[in-house]
Amino acid sequence: MEKYLFISVVVQVLLTSVVMVLMGRRRIAAAKNKEIAVAAFKTMDLTGANEQVIATSRNFDNQFQMPMLFMFSVLFIMQFALADLGFVLLAAAFVVLRVMHTLVHIGSNNVRLRFRVFLLGCLVLWVMWLRLLVMVMM
Description:
The protein has helices at 2-32, 51-62, 66-79, 85-106, 111-137. By secondary structure, the protein is an all-alpha fold. The longest helix has 31 residues, at 2-32.
C-alpha cells in the first residue's frame, strides 16, 4: 500500500512543478508584453499584471500550504507503517481535489467553485489527520 500512497505524493509534486512552469511562462510573457517591468520581479510586485499571471502565482504559493500538511501526513503514515486502502483513497481524493482546485484557479477562476473544492480538499486532509491520530494513539 505504501507504493500506492507514494504515487499521490508524486502526483502532487508533479502538479506543483507544472504550475511552476506555467507561472514562469505567464510571467515571462507579461514582461515581454510590458505588462510587468522586469524590475518588479525583485520584490515580486505584480501590480499591473493580468489576472492569469496573478492567479497562477497565487496558485503556486498555495501548493506550499495545505499540500505540505498532506506531505507530512503521508510521511507519518509511512513512518508508522499504517498505509492501507483507506489512506490511499483519502490521499488520492486529496490530490484529485488539488488538481481540480488548480484547474479552476488558473482557468475560469470561479471563486465559489474554487472555494468549495478547496474546502472539500481540506476536509479530506482533516479526515486523514484525524484517522492518523486515532491509529497512532491506539
